[in-house]
Amino acid sequence: MKARRNQTSVYRNKGSRREFLKLAGTASGLAILPRHVLGGRGVMAPSDCVTIAVIGAGGQGIRDMKNLLMEPDVRIVAVADPSRLSPGRKGDETGRVPALRAVAESDLQRLPNGPSRRCSEYSDFRVMLEKEKGIDAVLVAAPDHNHAVAVMAALQLGKHVFCEKPLAHSIAEVRALVETARRAGVATQMGNQGHSSEGIRLTCEWIWDGAIGPVHEVHAWCKNSYYRERPTDRPPLPTGLDWDLWIGPAPYRPYHPAYHPGGWRCFPEFGTGVLGDFACHHLDPAFWALHLKHPESVEAERFDSAAGTFPRRTRMTFQFAGTGDRPPVKLVWYDGGLYPDTPPELEPERQLTSQGHGILLVGEKGKILGDGWSRSPRLIPESAMKAYHRPPQTIPRTRGHERDWLDACKGGRPSSASFGNVSVMVESVLMGVIAVRTGEKLYWDGPGMRCTNSTAANDLVKPPYREGWSL
Hints:
Radius of gyration: 23 Å
Strand order of the largest sheet: 16-15-14-10-13-12-11-17-18
Largest sheet: 9 strands, mixed
CATH class of the largest domain: Alpha Beta
Number of domains: 2
Shape: globular
Structural class: alpha/beta
Helix content: 25-40%
Strand content: 15-25%
CATH architecture of the largest domain: 2-Layer Sandwich
Number of helices: 15
């Protein structure tokens, strides 16, 4: 590992927390006090809470933080990010400063008249994990290329981990994280939030009930496109950004705002394109309901592609073998504005997709159409939905994605989107990313973790790390 930068700041609030919020751009941190000092009903002692450290305070990281902070038994005590303050993709701010502000604002809402908590900031997550001995769990929401090194460091310390999708940047990393989490016996969760929804449970229960018969074809789509040309100029490095830490294990590239903030998903050394960003959401009902294993083959059609970047749009075909009484499944993914044909069962006044995201499951007796993120599944046509007698619930419901993980952290049942439960889907998605990058039809030996017809593809199953970094 590289020499660790011991960059941390802890701020003790001497005035009101409202004053702290005004100072949040230049200071951080607040002290956790016992319940008898804080006072008030509904205030939980630290021993009742899950104490969490955060790695990655970009837009999704801060959204995840805010969701966690809505739970009464969560305390976020440290934040690590190479950037102190950066503009976000949607006109917001990212980095350690807005992350600390989110903690302070949550504290102010919960305890308007009480003292503030301690929250430390670090640029290097390795230093944070070394110093923050009392944490129970870690949220990892860094860019894809840094997922595995951060998650592995937390797992090796025996910490519970919530990691944003697609869990890792390579298939070999997924395998290593799943096995390490299994040995550690900790609670894990991937950030495919629709997995905790009612919609995905209804889809599974209807398919298992035989509502549309054996499913042999799936179509899923996302309107987004992550095409961006490779930058060539060398703008100055912004103040407060440790670029070497941001690069982490990836091949070194000079700083450019095309990479950070936000644009890193467009470049294969950092991100996994539209497929890695959205397929773990939109394909989830198919993998769960159909018990899909590793694909036998993957083939990607690329449109408007350029060297060193992901294409403007893709259409990708996965072929899955049949198992038991289940038929083989053809799964087609579309992005960048490509969509499947509208099924003839859909009424003329209804659209295939209302928001540019969705999934269509095709069975021998009918079809289920749903929005992205497992939302709003319906048998089509609507007359079939109205005539269908829904089966009893057989899948346990959750109280929310973050709550499902927190309950597992506190000794409850394992979260439904644990690393082990989602690993085959994630590996399949990353296999699709490899097919996009190589432009070949790939034949895949899933258990052996190797492509049987392409050396170039196998090189991407376990790509090398930059010198000084390892799992």
